[in-house]
Design a protein that fits this description.
Layout (H helix, E strand, L loop, with lengths): L11 E2 L5 E5 L2 E5 L5 E5 L9 E2 L5 E5 L11 E5 L2
């Protein structure tokens, strides 16, 4: 991902082999074939990603923000 200029902090791998990760204000999917797709933007960035056991969603926590903006658990439906 470095050659594309995308920094990856954390990721998770789905049962189909796809990798999901947040970077900056974008959430990406990296296919098993190597294709990178932005699946959601703009999103509030966060340090992690977890694909649900059934592969129906990916979750991540936000870092919060200035002026007391709370951290949140975010979800993107995949199916």
């Amino acid at each position: 991902m470095l050659e594309l200029g995308i920094g990856v902090d954390d990721f998770d791998v789905a049962s189909d082999g796809a990798i999901y990760f947040p970077s900056g204000g974008v959430f990406y999917r990296l296919s098993p074939e190597g294709a990178v797709t932005a699946i959601a933007y703009p999103v509030q960035g966060g340090p992690d990603a977890v694909v649900s056991a059934d592969g129906a969603a990916v979750y991540w926590s936000t870092r919060g923000g200035p002026a007391g903006v709370p951290q949140r658990i975010m979800r993107i439906r995949l199916k």
